[in-house]
Backbone:
């Protein structure tokens, strides 16, 4: 169960539109290492996760990813307000425009629609925690790449915030992995799958 | 709009600290110092939200709604509240929508 609050996790106030940049940032909405995939990955892995600390961390991080999805949607929306056909064409936003106008659609920067193929819920605690550590780093790299194309401080500021959150989540998943392995046979972590061989 | 935004920013800051404490406690459940900080920030946030909602309307779906269905009122979180550049938006600002 979730409740909605009529506010963002971190402020987004973008004065100048920039459809060219929006085309790149949309990747964190529906791309392979984006916030939608992150949220689905963690919220789905929860069900078979064995330990209370891990159930909690997946719930809390998975929920925060939804707040990040909303921030990214807001950034893309504000970057593409009131565009003229000339601006759309000049920015190379025309391909996106043809399919979605300026609606916010979950796709990668390459135009590939959102796919669950880029995430995993493996039903094995160790595998899933490593998946999540990698996912946080992949998202961090994507934000680093986006920042190379950002010169507008109005955009840079919330993107830097989101990048930092990837690092914090990575830290929490690392602690989760330590808590998990502390409960296993230290001579053979793979002796059995705690999510299946109970 | 400025005092409204400032108050909202304070709420966002406080809520963010709550998010951080909450997540930290998931992997450090016996840290009583952080647990008591979480409690303090929750109290602080409750007061800030009460003040905001009494002035500007509901923040969450379970907030007390006054005599009108204030929940539907603009602005929504994604609405741009910065100096706008287009005529369409200027007209909306003048019309009190932002």
Residues:
């Amino acid at each position: 169960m979730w409740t909605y609050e009529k506010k963002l996790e971190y402020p987004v106030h973008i004065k100048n539109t920039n459809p060219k940049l929006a085309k790149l940032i949309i990747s964190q909405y529906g791309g392979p290492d984006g916030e939608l995939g992150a949220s689905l990955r963690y919220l789905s892995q929860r069900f078979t996760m064995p330990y209370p600390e891990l159930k909690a961390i997946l719930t809390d991080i998975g929920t925060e990813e939804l707040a990040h999805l909303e921030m990214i949607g807001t950034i893309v929306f504000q970057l593409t307000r009131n565009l003229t056909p000339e601006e759309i064409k000049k920015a190379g936003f025309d391909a996106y425009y043809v399919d979605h106008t300026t609606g916010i659609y979950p796709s990668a920067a390459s135009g590939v629609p959102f796919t669950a193929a880029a995430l995993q819920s493996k039903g094995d605690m160790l595998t899933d925690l490593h998946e999540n550590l990698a996912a946080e780093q992949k998202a961090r790299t994507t934000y680093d790449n986006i920042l190379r194309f950002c010169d507008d401080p109005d955009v840079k500021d919330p993107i830097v915030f989101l990048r930092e959150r990837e690092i914090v989540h990575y830290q929490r998943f690392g602690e989760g992995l330590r808590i998990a392995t502390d409960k296993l046979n230290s001579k053979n972590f793979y002796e059995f799958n705690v999510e299946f061989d109970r | 709009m400025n005092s409204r935004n400032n108050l909202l920013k304070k709420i966002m800051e406080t809520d963010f600290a709550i998010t951080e404490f909450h997540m930290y406690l998931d992997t450090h459940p016996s840290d009583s110092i952080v647990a008591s900080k979480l409690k303090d920030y929750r109290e602080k946030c409750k007061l800030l939200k009460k003040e905001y909602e009494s002035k500007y309307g509901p923040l969450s779906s379970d907030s007390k709604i006054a005599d009108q269905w204030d929940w539907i009122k603009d602005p929504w979180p994604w609405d741009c509240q910065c100096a706008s550049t287009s005529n369409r938006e200027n007209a909306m600002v003048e019309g009190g929508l932002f």
In short: Chain B has one domain: 2-60+70-94. The longest helix of chain B spans residues 2-27. Residues 84-98 of chain B have pLDDT under 50 and may be disordered.
